[in-house]
Write a structure and sequence with these properties.
Largest sheet: 12 strands, parallel
Strand content: 15-25%
Distance between the termini: 55 Å
Number of helices: 0
């Protein structure tokens, strides 16, 4: 159903194609379902695939047993088999790797060669490229992981900054959130080992276990330039933060105290699981920023 749907079909059977250009090049592949514009577009002989969403499994040629639900889900997959992608751009860059599961907005979006990974949650394992055997459950869990293998991350922001660290286990919100390259750590509990960056072979069990800044103790002071004019609305940014900090309400006066959560800082100190407290200053003066633990 739709312009050029199943256009090249020769001897293939039990296929369903709904949407313009869906399954256009399928010749002998059987038992496939394609719903959406250009879904399953390049398939030739792949069997038992399901593509629901515009451009879902668009580049698939010969791979079998894949499920892609969502815009651009498994879009670049060609020969990788037994993958499941549910969500916008989930596993979108996957080409020939197999046995991956990505559920959530951009889950495993950059994965190309990594296999046996499971990512459940928006942005989970989003930067993973070639690493294998990772499990990430929760919003941004293992978000920045690229080549670190055999990590288990369960909880919002857990192991969010990990890049190449391997064999880590983080269970709980913000557990091992700042970890980057360290391996063989175990953190169980909210914000357990949250400030650890490169320390290896640590075991932390319980809320805030082995975390810095417990009880509101400052972790690190910063001096930044505040260019927000007095009495106007706007947004403050800081060079060491990866995300917008907070919009200042109109009429905010000098001396206003601001407290918000951070996600991840480039120096690994200001991570989610912390907040900063600053004194708002008028007209370009400097404000002292101190990082604290969120309770």
């Amino acid at each position: 159903v739709g312009k050029d749907a199943l256009l090249a079909n020769t001897t293939a059977s039990q296929n369903v194609a709904i949407g313009s250009l869906s399954s256009v090049t399928t010749t002998t592949g059987c038992k496939n379902t394609a719903v959406g514009h250009a879904s399953f577009y390049n398939n030739s002989t792949g069997d038992n695939n399901t593509a629901l969403g515009n451009f879902a499994l668009n580049d698939n040629t010969t791979a079998d047993d894949n499920t892609a639900v969502g815009y651009f889900a498994l879009k670049a997959n060609t020969t990788g088999a037994n993958n499941t992608a549910v969500g916008r751009c989930a596993l979108a860059s996957n080409t020939d790797s197999r046995q991956n599961t990505g559920i959530g907005n951009i889950a495993l979006i950059d994965n190309t060669e990594g296999e046996f990974n499971t990512a459940v949650g928006s942005q989970s394992l989003a930067d993973n490229t070639t690493a294998d055997c990772n499990v990430a459950v929760g919003y941004t869990a293992l978000r920045k992981n690229t080549t670190g293998t055999a990590n288990t991350s369960v909880g919002t922001f857990s192991l969010a900054c990990n890049t190449t660290g391997a064999c880590n286990a983080a269970i709980g919100q913000g557990a091992l959130a700042a970890n980057t390259t360290a391996s063989s750590n175990t953190a169980v509990g909210r914000h357990a080992l949250t400030a650890n960056t490169t320390g290896a072979q640590n075991d932390a069990f319980g809320r805030h276990a082995l975390g810095n800044g417990v009880g509101g103790t400052p972790l690190h002071p910063y001096w930044v330039t505040d260019t927000q004019p007095a009495g106007t609305a706007g947004t403050q940014y800081y060079p060491w933060a990866h995300s917008v900090i907070r919009e200042i309400s109109p009429g905010a006066a000098s001396g206003t105290t601001i407290q918000v959560a951070l996600w991840c800082a480039s120096d690994g100190v200001g991570v989610f699981g912390k907040y900063y407290s600053s004194t708002y200053a008028d007209g370009g003066a400097q404000s002292s920023i101190t990082i604290y633990e969120i309770k």
